[in-house]
Amino acid sequence: MSSRLEHLNHWVAEVAHHTRPAAIHWCDGSDTENRMLIDQMLADGTLHLLNQDTHPGSTLHRSHPDDVARVEHLTYVCTTHHEDAGPNNHWMAPDEAHAEIDALFDGCMQGRTMYVIPYCMGPIDSPLSRCGVEITDSPYVVANMRIMTRMGAAALARIERDGTFVKGLHSIGELDPNRRCIMHFPEELTIKSYGSGYGGNALLGKKCHALRIASHQARSEGWLAEHMLILGIENPQGQTHYIAAAFPSACGKTNLAMLIPPEGYLRDGWKIWTIGDDICWMRPGPDGRLYAINPEAGFFGVAPGTSNKSNPNALASIQSNTIFTNVGVTADHQPWWEGIDNGQVPVTDWQGQPYDASMRPAAHPNSRFTVSAKQCPSYSAMSEDPHGVPISAIVFGGRRASLVPLVFEARDWTHGVLVGAAMGSETTAAATGAVGVMRRDPMAMKPFCGYNFADYFAHWLSFDTEGAKLPKVFHVNWFRKGDDGKFLWPGFGDNLRVLEWMLRRVEGHGGAVETPIGHLPIAHDINLEGVPLSDEAHAKLFGIDREAWQAEFASIGDYLAEYGPRLPQALLEEQRKIAAELA
Length: 583
Ligand code: SAT
Ligand code: MN
Prior knowledge:
The chain is 29% helix and 22% strand.
């Protein structure tokens, strides 16, 4: 191996010395290697074969019942100065963190194979891409990383060219919740994760690298690493606009990224192109616009609720070569989850027990599918473009049963940053803890920003420079409920009606009224043909309750104050200005 890889070799040897595996396997990402690992996991029960007639190449993994979601309370950002991690992160001093987690890693791979996974986040030849190497003792992680990233020989070649990479060390350990933690060392470009085999805790390329470490890297290099989907909207004239949209986990990012246009739009020739469903890296191009890539190569989507009605593109994507995690199965070994709505019935639940609705759902609420993006019918070839795609609009959204209207537009970039910083959402099953509690989740990055949110907001503001052609910023809420507790907006494909209004705003036509919280469409500005809405829906989706918004702005002010003197003054002034207008 060349001298440029010496640093990597040295680290691998050091880890092997410390964790004492029975064997070391360098992953090349080939089909042969993948088949070998899958066969081995089928033999030892890590994977179960699904019906190969209906779901060729697909398997099921049942995780430990205590290991089914991200564990935010056990996730740390370990910077030299506590202040650099900010009140938005759990912090530990780097020395202390290394000592604590290294003790767990001591000898933990005895009797196991240690896999070395070189991977690239983003197209192999893109200047926006960044590489990493994950060392793990989980073949399930290897199989997932192969789908979610560009993994193997090509990535190793790029690492050799770049000379740098993010180091990720992972062991499933004993899968004991009391011996579990995920540590990030942004200053050392290092991640250490112990005791969990679940997605966001174990596939280190995803949230740990592409968001926590990358956000830190992006700040110092002048770009943005965001928890956003990227989609292309092609109009009947054949022009495509790209939108990046941030929503918390399990709020429909995958559905929006793969949306099927409603009837009239399909007839007129509108098309949706999927670039990514979870993560977006963007940086200003020579023309001043923001250009985005999806650092991932696959989807790690929430299974429950995915049906031919809610997301036919996702359902079509997962007919083959898919790893399902924690779903139920039917008598003939097809995957099944709540809301699949295909007329079949589960016989076995996600824990492998006979299905009993009074015991637990057939699929865990955070059960997932892992599949290559290329299997999606709306996959865009632009996903491989090394330059990325130009972003016309940035959308922020949360799950808000009350208060927040269907859509509004920020007046300018600074206001847009405040809209993102003030985002709130009700918690979901994607993280352990109570579900349905409203919490502030700025830019949907609360669990993923690798540094102090005050500095992060300042970084966002810093893009507003002379010559910048920044996207317009919008806020949406697909989840507003009526007095009867039912959703007021149909959502799914009909969300295109809202996106189309945004694009008209981007192009300078498209009506709106000015309000203190931003520009709101009145109902007739949005194409509602074929969408019957009650008077209550009209009032709540397209109106604002000033008094309730005054209370919201007071709460936003209190929230921002938690960041103390590091918070950029411009953001506070924006909040105060709007609060005053509302009063
Ligand atoms: O569990 S993951 O972090 O991979 C997915 C998510 O929560 O968005
Ligand atoms: Mn996510």
